[in-house]
Amino acid sequence: MDYLELKITCLEDFREILIAELAEIGFDSFLETEEGVDAYAPEQEFDREAFLELIEKYKLPAQISWHESKMPKVNWNEEWEKNYDPIEVDDLVFVRASFHDPAPGFQYEIVINPKMSFGTGHHATTYQMLKHQAEIDHKGKRVLDVGSGTGILAIMAHLLEAQEIEAFDIDEWCVENGNENFDLNGLSTRMDIGTIREVNPQGKFDIILANINKNILLDEMEIYAELLDSKGFLLLSGFYTEDIEDLLECAAPLGLSLYKKNSKDNWAALILQKD
Ligand SMILES: C[S@@+](CC[C@H](N)C(=O)[O-])C[C@H]1O[C@@H](n2cnc3c(N)ncnc32)[C@H](O)[C@@H]1O
C-alpha cells in the first residue's frame, strides 16, 4: 500500500492542533521534526478536499507550507526512538519506551513502544484520560477500551487492577502494536480489530474508555450507554472544550450524567455516570 507523506513546516504552537486535525482526515502517523510535522496517510484514505479545507480554515499557507510525496509504508521504530521522550502524567504515571530507563517514584509505569499508533500520553486527550482513570476505582471491574491505539488506557486499567479488559481499534497496525505493548506490560488481553458495531462486545461493563473524536463519540454514545452497567462510568476525550455541551446533550437522554469534566490545551475530557 502506498502512503502519502506530507512534510509540513509550521510554528511549534500549532503542531498539536494540526496533528489532531490531520488525524481526523485520514492521517494515521506523525513525526514531529525540527521544522514542523511529517504526516502520513494511506493514499486511498487521503481526503484531499478535507485537507484543502483545513488549510483554508487556518488561513494557510500563511502559517505552514507542505511538500507531498509518495512512499511505501515502513517501520517507524527507529524514527520513534529518536523522537519519543518519556512523559510524566503529574507524579502519577510515567510513560516510557522499552529503550528508556525506568524512573523510580511514580505510582504507575507504562511501557509503550508506539511505532505508528496514537497514544503515548503526550497528547492532552490521552493525558487527561489517564488522570481520570486514576480517579475511578477499577479494582475487579470489567473495562472496555474503544479505539485503543497503543493500548495505553487498557494498560492503565490493568495497572489499576481491572479484572477483565476488552480493547479494540479499527487500525490493523494499532492492533499489532497494541498487542506488543500489552505483552510488555503483562496484559494477557488481545486487542481486537473493528468498530464497536463490528466487534459487538457482549454483557455489561463497569467502565468504558473512548478517546476518539466528537463525531464518532456522538454516533456511538447510545451503544456505550447500553453496554454500561448501572452506576458505571464512561470516560471520554478527543473533542474540544467548546464541544462539551453537544456531548452532554447527547448523553443526558441516555441516562448518562456529568460526573467530572476537565480541559487541557483546549482538549476536553469527561467522566459520565450511568443512572
Ligand atoms: C485519539 S486515538 C486514542 C488512542 C488511545 N486510546 C489514547 O487514548 O491515547 C483514537 C484511536 O481510535 C481509533 N479509531 C478511530 N475510529 C474508530 C472507531 N470507529 N472504532 C474504533 N477505533 C477507532 C484510531 O485508529 C485511533 O487509534
From TrEMBL:
InterPro entries: Ribosomal_L11_MeTrfase_PrmA, Ribosomal_PrmA_MeTrfase, SAM-dependent_MTases_sf. It catalyses: L-lysyl-[protein] + 3 S-adenosyl-L-methionine = N(6),N(6),N(6)-trimethyl-L-lysyl-[protein] + 3 S-adenosyl-L-homocysteine + 3 H(+). It is found in: Cytoplasm. Gene3D superfamilies: Vaccinia Virus protein VP39. Its main location: cytoplasm. CDD domains: AdoMet_MTases. Keywords: Cytoplasm, Methyltransferase, Ribonucleoprotein, Ribosomal protein, S-adenosyl-L-methionine, Transferase. One of its GO terms (molecular function) is protein methyltransferase activity. One of its GO terms (biological process) is methylation. One of its GO terms (cellular component) is ribosome. S-adenosyl-L-methionine binds at T126, G147, D169, N211. Methylates ribosomal protein L11. NCBIfam families: PRK00517.2-2. This is Ribosomal protein L11 methyltransferase. It comes from Algoriphagus halophilus.
